[in-house]
Amino acid sequence: MNVATSELTDNELILGYKEGDYSCFETLLSRYQSKVYGYIFSVVKDKDIADDIFQDTFYKVVYTINSGVYKDENKFIHWVMRIAHNLIVDYFRRVGKMPIVPNRPEYDIVETLRLHDDNVEKQIMRKQTNSNIRKLIKKLPPEQRRVVIMRHYGRLDFKEIAERTNVSINTALGRMRYAIINLRRLAREYKMIIDL
């Protein structure tokens, strides 16, 4: 691109990124990372959780753009914030505690207990999924395996992974994307249940 990337609109940056200019994505990331991260942290109030949700947000952004699904409507940041918001909601659903039962005759205690049982079942399934994923990770190509281990077990963000593996952030995100695709394929081959 001839023009300095910092002067380009969001849509121009997305187009440049699609055409292979990875500096365009880095410009988008630096343009909005404070706003997106600030919003996430203000809701979850935990740095590690905020880091994870932030990374997952931009992973989804990259994945959607690369897959050609993103629709250019001059609302890039609104779309990114909606992804972040949905991931925050998913996080709170996953860590939901046993609900408090109000002391009212019309309140259905059976329904409350059923919801709690569903959460226990989900926890058991998550443990089984994690066990299956650990087995499948060993079958990934070395570069993909390394990114998955650094991200999920080392809890590194993609910038740190990129630095430690001497690749761009985009390459690290791409390796993660292909690792997930391969894990899903392997799960089908070995008839394992995973939730990715």
Radius of gyration: 20 Å
Class by helix and strand content? mainly alpha
Taking the alpha carbons of the first and last residues, their distance comes to 36 Å
Number of domains: 2
Residue runs with pLDDT of under 50 for 5 or more positions: 97-118
Biggest sheet architecture: none
Under CATH at level 1, the class of the largest domain stands as Mainly Alpha
The helix-strand sequence is HHHHHHHH
Mean pLDDT: 80
Query: For the record, what is the CATH homologous superfamily label of the largest domain?
Result: RNA polymerase sigma factor, region 2, helix turn helix motif
Helix residue percentage: over 70%
Strand proportion: under 5%
Find the CATH topology of the largest domain.
Answer: Rna Polymerase Sigma Factor, Chain: A
Figure out the total of helices: 8
SS elements, strand count: 0
Structure explained in plain terms:
The structure is a single chain. This protein is mainly alpha-helical and 196 residues long. The chain folds into two domains: 5-94, RNA polymerase sigma factor, region 2, helix turn helix motif (Rna Polymerase Sigma Factor, Chain: A), CATH 1.10.1740; 109-189, Arc Repressor Mutant, subunit A. It has helices at residues 10-18, 22-44, 47-66, 76-94, 109-137, 142-153, 158-165, 169-189. The longest helix has 29 residues, at 109-137. The radius of gyration is 20 Å and the shape is globular. Mean pLDDT is 80; it is low at 97-118.
